[in-house]
Amino acid sequence: MTNEELILERLGRIEAQLAPISQTASGIKDLREDLIPLSGQAFRLMIRELEDVESGFQLEDLLALLKRTLRSVKHITFTLEQLENVVDFATTIEPLMKSAVPQVINYLDDLEQKGVLRVITAMLDVRAKIASAYTPEDIDQIGDGAVALLGLAKKLADPQAITFLEKISELPSKVDLANAKPVGPFGMIGALSSKEARQGLGVMMELTRAMGQLKNGGNSSTAKQVEPIA
């Protein structure tokens, strides 16, 4: 191979290597030609937009913001880390929320079907009516009365009191008022001949003895049992 052929071969290889560079340069030139009009439009648009903030923007403010940002890099980093934790927490709890929200909705719907929510609304309306009808002082007095009534309810919870009240509640069903007849003194003496009448009179005497304690506040000792009158 002659020198001329070697030179031509090398020139061919150099030309082949320079061809991509030439194409890249041509592409960059075309891109620059395309960007020049766009950059001009963007520059003019930026100028128009900055005219709106020209009166409220000072370069010193930008520099102060930049310095403040540089001084707060640690705080910004900490904030970003906490934001990542919040995102991780939200990502973790999202499946639970997807399953919990329908359950809560079903639970509230069940309460609505049972009328619980309407009862709560009615109770709130009652509280509003009480607040409009009574003063705070009246509510305090009502509260004191409620406490006293609770004390009475506690006393009525005694087994003996419950038994007594149960027996008293059974009396109306055992009394036949249609057969009640006038009774005079002799009739009363005759009625005492029955065991039930004598027992009833004994019960009345026991109640009378117990009611006598009301005069001194009910602090005396328990009345003695009264024997049935013979």
Protein described:
The protein is an all-alpha fold and 230 residues long. Among the domains are: 10-51; 184-223, no CATH class. Helices cover 80% and strands 0% of the residues. The protein is built from eight helices and no strands. It starts with a helix and ends in a 19-residue tail after the last helix. Mean pLDDT is 79; it is low at 222-230.
Low-confidence stretches: 222-230
Tally of contiguous helical segments: 8
Q: What is the CA-CA span between the terminal residues?
A: 161 Å
- Radius of gyration of CA atoms, rounded to a whole number: 51 Å
Helix/strand order, N-terminal first:
HHHHHHHH
Shape: rod-shaped
Give the total of beta strands. Answer: 0
How would you describe the oligomerization state of the chains in this entry?
single chain
Range of strand content: under 5%
Instruction: Quote the average pLDDT.
Output: 79
User: Which structural class is indicated by helix and strand composition?
Assistant: mainly alpha
